[in-house]
Amino acid sequence: MNIIENTDEEILEHAHTMWADLVKYSNEGNYGAFTRNFSSSFQMGANEIEMGKQFARSDLAKNLSDDYVYLGMIRRGQHVTVLYKQTNSKDGSEWLGRLVLGYEKDKVKIFGATLF
């Protein structure tokens, strides 16, 4: 399966749910739940100790607003990148959120997630 063949609506159904979960579990500092939809390759690259430190030290990681805005989508190869405007609920600053989705063993998984 190739995710770029899915309709925008099909992709966004997964993306919005997964982004909402990332926001929720980041705010809670729940590493296990935060990484549950990661692809195996992304999970292997995610250093659990470093992510734990990020959750502990980062005001941004603990103060993500539930009020994010979908900006657009880019299809490329076997993956789709979904972009969000993400707000920090503590100081109101705005960040660009990037979510990379694709299929792994016939399931949609997260292959990348970043805030810029």
Give a concise summary:
The chain has helices at 8-28, 31-34, 40-45, 48-57, 59-62; strands at 69-76, 79-87, 94-104, 107-115.
Can you give a write-up of this model?
It is a single chain. The chain is α+β, with helices and mostly antiparallel strands and 116 residues long. The protein is built from five helices and four strands, in the order H-H-H-H-H-E-E-E-E. A four-stranded antiparallel beta sheet has the order 1-2-3-4. A hairpin with a 2-residue loop joins strand 3 and strand 4 (107-115). 22% of the residues are buried. The mean pLDDT is 91.
Provide keyphrases for this structure.
116 residues; 4 strands; single chain; Nuclear Transport Factor 2, Chain: A; four-stranded antiparallel beta sheet; globular; alpha+beta
What's the CATH C level? Alpha Beta
How many DSSP-defined strands? 4
DSSP helix fraction = 25-40%
Count of individual domains: 1
Question: Mean pLDDT across all residues, rounded?
Answer: 91
Strand fraction: 25-35%
CATH architecture: Roll
Which structural class fits the helix and strand makeup?
alpha+beta
Biggest beta sheet summary: 4 strands, antiparallel
Strand order of the largest sheet: 1-2-3-4
Oligomerization category of the chains in this entry: single chain
CATH topology: Nuclear Transport Factor 2, Chain: A
How far apart are the first and last residues' alpha carbons, in Å? Answer: 30 Å
Rounded radius of gyration (Å):
14 Å
Please tell me what the overall shape is: globular
User: What is the N-to-C order of secondary-structure elements (H for helix, E for strand)?
Assistant: HHHHHEEEE
Poorly predicted spans: none
Count of separate DSSP helical elements: 5
